């Protein structure tokens, strides 16, 4: 909160609190993209490991990726979304899978 100085009737200074409004951070969707090479089981592991999904939730998202070409893993502020994308991409590379993970503004 910012403060504002004002004079009172006697010439003395009075401080008032000024409410500043902050905007909520922009949110970004983290998406997995389908490919013809990454095993479905690996995608489920990624969703469990990096997005804390249950096996059932992860399976549903994996099937959405498989059927629709992409699926939402979560919605996060920019820095967290970028970190998740990098972690998933690095993990996929380490395991020699071409799984693509991207983010887009929500």
List keywords for this structure.
106 residues; alpha+beta; rod-shaped; two-stranded antiparallel ribbon; 3 helices; 3-stranded antiparallel beta sheet
Strand content: 25-35%
Give the fraction of residues assigned to helices.
40-55%
Radius of gyration: 23 Å
Distance between the termini: 29 Å
The structural class is alpha+beta
Total number of beta strands: 5
Mean pLDDT comes to 91
Unreliable segments of 5+ consecutive residues: none
Query: What is the chain-wise order of helices and strands?
Result: EEEHHEHE
- Major sheet attributes: 3 strands, antiparallel
Q: In order across it, which strands form the biggest sheet?
A: 4-3-5
Walk me through the structure:
This protein is of the alpha+beta class and 106 residues long. It contains three helices and five strands, in the order βββααβαβ. The chain has helices at 40-51, 55-68, 78-94; strands at 2-7, 13-18, 27-33, 70-77, 100-105. The strands form two sheets. Strands 4-3-5 form a three-stranded antiparallel sheet. The longest helix has 17 residues, at 78-94. The mean pLDDT is 91.
């Amino acid at each position: 909160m910012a403060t504002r100085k004002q004079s009172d009737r006697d010439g003395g200074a009075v401080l008032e609190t000024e409410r500043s409004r902050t905007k909520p951070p922009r949110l970004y969707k983290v998406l997995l993209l389908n490919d013809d090479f990454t095993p479905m089981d690996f995608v489920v592991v990624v969703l469990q490991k990096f997005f804390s999904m249950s096996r059932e939730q992860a399976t549903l998202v994996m099937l959405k990726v498989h059927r629709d070409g992409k699926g939402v893993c979560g919605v996060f502020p920019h820095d967290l979304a970028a970190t998740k994308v990098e972690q998933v991409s690095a993990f996929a590379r380490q395991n020699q899978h071409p799984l693509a993970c991207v983010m887009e503004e929500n």
